[in-house]
Amino acid sequence: MTGSAVLTERWSHWRQRVDDCLEQHLPAAGMEPAMLSEAMRYAVFGTGKRFRAALVYAAGEGLGATPTELDLPACAVELVHAFSLVHDDLPAMDDDDLRRGKPSCHVAFGEATAILTGDALQSLAFDLLARESSGYSAQTRLDMVRILAQATGSSGMAGGQAIDLSGSASSKTALETMHRMKTGALIAASVQLGARAAGAEDPALLEGLSRYGLVLGLTFQVTDDILDETSETAALGKMRGSDRRQHKPTYLTVLGEAPARRAAAQYHQRAREALAGLPMDVTALMALTDFVTSRHH
Question: Taking the CB of the first residue and of the last residue of the chain, which one, N or C, has fewer CB atoms within 10 A?
């Protein structure tokens, strides 16, 4: 079976699993405080591709883990991703009114509730990873919490967003640094969490997966920048050209479209090369890698 066929078959299964798991752990509709519970569900459920969850499952299954062993870390990365989107869309941040094809959380529920929604989603992510009932060893739970915390904090997403808001990333090198933090860190963490949940401990393997995840993050981001300028709003699920309106540096504004497309191809090739030598089944990860750049063709 080809990589794309494997991906088509597995991804829908992974999405259903992670949605079922999120439904189990998010506050039920109407649970007090009712507006916060509703906003949390609104931010998490919808048309999201569950790409980061797919990376958890692909990495973990490639190392012999069962889907059940991967459900909680897959949920955790999706909760952190949803929290980051809610906060990034706020007026004080990127000021975007549309997300995943519907009004952003702060538009639907107000700024205060959106801030609290992000806080609550992030807390729940770490709660899930830390639970004794997960079946992971205490050391594995600690390792997974640390991996996700580092990807979320000042050396990861929060730091990358701070650099982005400052508008100081005016060269390709600076963009790479920013996006390794803002986008790459959580993508790399997703791969790492899948490996740790599968019991992987070999430092060389984990380092190789980290390198892969970070360059995959760059592939994802440069493709996203291209899509932001060249796709219609309905297809994007968010406002087209929002980065340009905010005068934020992107691969397109810094490099131009043709060089940006070349950069995407180069990152894509580097990601494939990083996977190629790893002692595991990389079929699904390779297919996910190819999916990233296929989005702008």
Answer: C
Using CB atoms within 10 Å of the CB of residue 113, give its burial: 0 to 12 exposed, 13 to 18 middle, 19+ buried: buried
What pTM value is reported for the model? 0.94
Residue 231 has pLDDT above 80, yes or no: no
Give the whole-angstrom CA distance, residue 40 versus residue 42. 5
pLDDT tens digit sequence for 131-147: 988 899 999 999 999 99
Per-residue pLDDT band for 201 (boundaries 50, 70, 90) equals very high
The tokens of 77 are what? 């990365």
User: What is the maximum span of the chain, computed from C-alpha positions, in angstroms?
Assistant: 51
User: What whole-number distance in Å separates Cα of residue 243 and Cα of residue 257?
Assistant: 15
Intra-chain end-to-end CA distance of the chain, in Å: 23
Spatial distance between the Cα atoms of 121 and 167, rounded to a whole number of angstroms: 27
The domain tally of the chain equals 1
Q: Is the dihedral of CA 292, 274, 17, 186 positive or negative?
A: negative
Tokens of 239: 């406002």
Evaluated on CA atoms 214, 220, 226, 229, the torsion sign reads negative
- Structural tokens at position 272: 């494939």
Cis omega (within 30 of 0) on the bond before 33? yes
Model pLDDT, residue 297: 44
Supply the CATH number for residue 23's domain: 1.10.600.10
Separation CA 123–CA 83 (nearest Å): 10
Return the SS3 of 154.
coil
| C-alpha dist (Å) from residue 27 to 42, 117, 137, 223 | 11, 12, 26, 34
**Which residue range forms the structural domain that includes residue 20?**
3-294
- Tally Cβ neighbours within 10 Å of residue 291: 18
Q: Are 236 and 211 in contact (CB under 8 A)?
A: no
- Residue 27 DSSP symbol: P
